[in-house]
Fold this protein.
Amino acid sequence: FGSSVCGVKIILRSSMGQRNCVNRPPIEAATVHSGQAAPASASGAAGSTKAQGQVQQAFAQQADWESVWDTVLEHKVVQDEYGSFLSGLTSEAGKILQVRTLLPLAKASYAAKPAGALPAKRAGILEGYKGFAAKKGIDWKGSAASLEQRGPAIWEAERAAIRRKVDMPDYYRACYEGPIHSYNCGNGEWSAAFDAPSAYLLVHLHHYPAVSPQEAFDALHEEFDQLALKHLGASMDRPLRCLDMGCGVGTSTFSTRRSLERAGHKGKLTGVDLSDYFITVAKHIQKEREQEFKGTIALEFLHGNALDVKNCGFEDGSLDLVMISEVTHEMPKAVSESLFKEAARVLAPGGVLGYLDLNPAQILKENQIGALVDRVATCNEPYFDQYLELDCAAAMEAAGFQVLEKTWPHHAKYSSLESCSLRILVAKKPVDLQLDAWTGSWALDRRENWPAYLEALGVPQAAWEEAEKSPDFHEYLVKEDSFFLDHRIPSRDKHMRYTAYLDDVWEVSAYQKPTAKEFSDEATEAKQTMWKHRWVKKPTIMETILGEFVGPGKDVSLQRELISLDEMKMTVNVLEKDTGKVLVGPCYTWMKRTGNAAPKSVVSELRERFNTGVSRSLEWRLKALDQAGNLVLENVDALSAAQAKDHVSPSNMMGAAMMVKGAVGFYKGNLPAWMESTKPAETLPPFMQTEGEWEVVPEPKGVGLVIAPWNAPALLCILPLMGMLAAGNLCVIKPSEAAPATSRLIARLIAKYFPDREVVVEEGGREIVQEIIGSPVDHILFTGGGEVAKKIMCLASQHLTPVSLELGGKNPCFVDAADSEQLALYVAEIIGTKSYFGGQFCQAQDYCLVHEKVFDEFVRLCEEKISALGEKRTIQLINATHAKRVKSLQEGMEHCARPEVSSVPEDCVQLTLFVEPPKDSAIMEQEIFGPLLPILRVTGEEEAMAFVVGRPKPLVAYCYSPNADAWALFRDKTSSGNLAVNCGPQRMQSNFNVGFGGVGDSGFGHSIWGKAAFDDYSHHKTVFKGKKFGGSVWGASPPPPKGAGKGK
């Protein structure tokens, strides 16, 4: 096996794992190289009738090299040296080895022939193609001539215009400057480019023989396109970026464009090819065919190297679809593998690769060794031997793809992959599925083993088919610890919307009976069932357990798994409650994505419900107020525990619950009167009046938004809510994200006490606030700090949404000269309030202005009161971030701190006095909202008043004085949201008949409780009801009588 032929060393290898020992006539070695027909062997191998298409048939008539191999394999030396190796090869691998063994001999033989022999052979094959094309109705020569007649000057000018600086790989240069297919400069000459449109029609017309060549080509490529496009799925409903790698003269590119437009896509498709000749022709054809397309897909052709499309402007992850059609059989194996890697680079996660090319399985099975050798040796396909061993699926997977489809076209004609000369692969760049991959709409695709579940539920068998196939629609919005679901079963008029929490905590289920039971005619009593949810594998698999959903002792497990961007699998098992043993299942539901839009916003949902008029009646409002009251009164301990977990001070809700109880009674007792319209008196002079009646009607605004603070996270959700409900509004509550345990509990309780979703909780931070306000809502209440309030106002201004702001500010407390007993009361109130709330209270005294006559005694009493607290002096604030801000106000103030400040945990601050700090220090400029108390000396009420007037308007001003003149001075000369004379904050919030709110920097509106809140959340509509038509003097009204309106 070491002989040389024509100076080329030949290594004979065989893949034949079997040895067919038959006597065959001797064959001249030159036959395979010349392309002359070889005599048929006894087995009929020569001139195989299985060869498909014109290329395979053009090379079919070959010498019987198979019999030569059989003889060689029987040789003892071969058996001794290579028998074990050869017997382990597959027939395909063996055939490739045989081809490669003969190639040096074939190439040497062609090289030894006269210079024009091989070009003449190529020309003969090409003429054969053209003749056959004419018989099949392809006007090859006419088509090429029509392109050629434009003249070389025009073509060369256009080629120069599209040429880009491109590095041409050596493998391609060999086919650009040398032969490929039947052309002497295949990719670098006009004749090949002019012939290409017809050649593409010819080579595959045999796949659809019953139709015209153009229809056959269109059918083939449309089938290929559709296989790829179906995997784009609904996740690609935005403008697409697509690429056709190695587009040639654009025939495949035009097909892909048409398929994209027919599928309703929009975007841009780019065809890239290394041949400047082919690209020039492609751009010319594009101009001629532009009217065929809708224009939703923009098309461009670029001269470029598909192995480096970054040079064409395609960055990493910038594409949604890459198509590779019939180019890899012209490439070395390693180049094809690099092409797949480049496709993987430019595709975005979830992007699709469509691949169509010759099928090595059919070619190796149905073509003779000589035919394959000749295709390579003649440079028809110079790298064909490498292509035949290209494992496309493995190469795609190595490049990072997930192969989704391995198939072939026209299954009606071809029963298997091995019977078709083409193969199709579709792959997808894997997506690193994150939470947002759930978002969107999904529809039932199919179910598996569903009758088993229906039987377990007791659904009559007659209803099984409908229950299994009835359309079922889901819309999801999934977050880190919760998911929202909009669930519809139209055939049963079933529509549910709910939020579920992924924290493995039992709560009341939104489903009072299995949805499958809706298909049973038997009455099924609804019951309050419990469920819990958890992540099994975050963020792609979550599980819901429905307690005793099927019956006593039988839970249902529903596991949702995100398989891809476009597919979700739901697995249902009926479990034994105590052991978790599977009693029924697994049963499967498969959902397919139908869109990417998030579910309808809760504001839109509430507005639709509000527009039905459901909340306008007194009965609805009274019931809603009871629900809100019961939410607090029945859950005092749970709310207190949640607030304690959040470090809310004070955490105990009992006092707040009593306040809520009183508010419910107050609202219910007064609401009927508040809802009545008022009838204002007429102010026009009699001669201008028309008979009628004035009326002011309080009507609900619509959908309100309550943004609650963290310092009273439960109470300041519910109190404003009651005002919203009393006014007939529906409401979204946004609890504070800084009190997460309370926020989650409020969300659960609202869902329980308002199951019809007149009130909805939306948890989250600034993003969710922006989303809700942008929906928009009809009134906003924000309780919190001034800087955030400004941002809320800015957002609200986009829709001119009315806003109520309950802010804080630096609440001053004037302490006048008083006797020791009275002074001690003032100190007890101020220090007690600071200690109880940790200063984290919008009504807390921020600083004191103390009369100089009692200044020293006041400071001494305060310091004694603080020292007496002992360990309770150290107060845990809501979180370390807030504590850090409060501590920063102490910096540089150590000299005036009393008692002395010591080291404390990072989330704690000590109750401390700051005696006469600089008036321009941070502690005197910023709202403290913590257990620090600056104390300033003043000469009396006049100086105190002037100091307060010179600062931003506070929420509450306190005046502690036995002097009525001081009271009047603060009432008449200062401006604050509220004025507390000789009382603490508790007294200020004890009368529902008066509103409570700020002014200026401390806010506006009276939206916490009582009639003031009812008025704030109502629109007071003016109505005039004329008994007769009352026109205007510039319209239908006659002019007033002469002299009317003149007095004596």
In short: The CA atoms of residues 187 and 741 lie 70 Å apart. Confidence is low (pLDDT under 50) at residues 1-49.
